[in-house]
Design brief:
Elements lengths: L5 E6 L6 H17 L3 E6 L14 E4 L4 H4 L2 H8 L9 H8 L1 H10 L7 E4 L18 E5 L9 E3 L2 H10 L7 E5 L3 E9 L2 E2 L3 E4 L7 H5 L5 E4 L4 H17 L5 E9 L4 E7 L9 H8 L4 H10 L3
Parallel strand pairs: 1-2, 1-3
Antiparallel strand pairs: 4-7, 5-6, 5-7, 8-9, 8-10, 8-12, 10-11, 12-13
Helix pairs in contact: 1-10, 3-4
């Protein structure tokens, strides 16, 4: 590994995931300090000139939302010859947009729930909804994370209620087929799949409250057969490679009642809070939080 002396953690920003990013960044910053590196913590909102980042040996991106996961930040860093953690601009752009991501998965024969693209959902307030294509669907913004603006839709009324409750109904959304079964997530660092986590929640689905607030959400080591472990690792790595990810990522997966796995999405800047799946998965591999951070750093040099 090339010698590293100083690492800057970029976090915060202005997206709907700002508070989560602040928690992720502080945790990573503390870990980097404890690992013996010189470290600095910079809020993306305070970053006026990307050129100031050239004095650091590595940029650790803990910036959730479009600013950190949409690809533009990575492209700017590439143009300046600055090293950073995680995937490059094209992979980030492809994974950040759910419609694009799912299209790439489908083109590569990787299972993903069926979906339909809606350029805007605000228009549905003024027209009748007669067919949502599926008996039950999820409504999801194409470009957002942390389960922001995700709604389970059972009928026309719940659809209209969701449109009214949405933070921004004028952006693109997808309606996605509801797959009944178990929900898993797989952390990938380098070429290694960490133990799959099964997500157990008393909420209707793994929403924002279940992810970051509730102490009742269970993140348990998945109890899978040897064959299922091989299948979930393969579909995770296939998705990681199809999007051309690098460094690290988290792949969210559903398993239907017949045992078939489906990729929901790929997160190129996963959460690193105390409630997050990546450090929890590391724990199942016998790694402490700091050791997980060190592995991510190692994969970025």
């Amino acid at each position: 590994m090339e010698k590293l002396n100083n690492i800057v953690v970029i976090y915060g920003g202005s997206s709907s995931e700002r508070e989560i990013s602040l928690k992720s960044g502080r945790g990573i910053f503390d870990a980097i300090n404890q690992l013996g590196f010189e470290a600095e913590l910079i809020d993306y909102n305070d970053l006026d000139d990307f050129g100031v980042l050239k004095k650091y040996d590595l940029v650790f991106i803990a910036l959730h939302g479009f600013e950190g996961e949409g690809g533009d930040f990575q492209k700017n860093l590439d143009n300046l010859g600055i090293r950073y953690t995680g995937s490059g601009p094209d992979a980030c752009k492809s994974s950040w947009d759910k419609h694009i991501c799912k299209s790439i998965l489908r083109e590569n024969n990787i299972n993903t729930p069926s979906w339909k693209l809606h350029k805007s959902i605000n228009k549905y307030l003024d027209m009748p909804i007669t067919n949502l294509d599926f008996n039950n669907v999820f409504l999801k913004p194409c470009r957002d994370g942390s389960s922001v603006d995700i709604f389970k839709i059972d009928d026309n009324k719940s659809f209209i209620d969701a449109v009214n409750q949405s933070i921004n109904p004028n952006r693109s959304f997808i309606t996605e087929e509801l797959i009944s079964g178990k929900e898993f997530t797989v952390t990938i660092i380098g070429n290694e799949c960490f133990p799959a986590i099964e997500i157990v929640t008393e909420n209707e689905f793994y929403d924002y409250e279940a992810k970051y607030i509730s102490d009742d959400t269970g993140l348990i080591e998945a109890n899978l057969t040897t064959d299922e472990q091989e299948q979930i690792n393969k579909i995770s790595m296939d998705a990681f490679n199809a999007i051309n990810c690098s460094g690290w990522a988290r792949v969210d997966i559903l398993q239907d009642d017949s045992g078939i796995f489906y990729v929901l999405e790929i997160n190129t800047v996963p959460g690193m809070t105390s409630h997050s799946c990546v450090p929890k998965s590391g724990k199942f591999s016998g790694l402490e939080y700091n050791e997980v951070v060190k592995k991510i750093v190692n994969e970025s040099t």
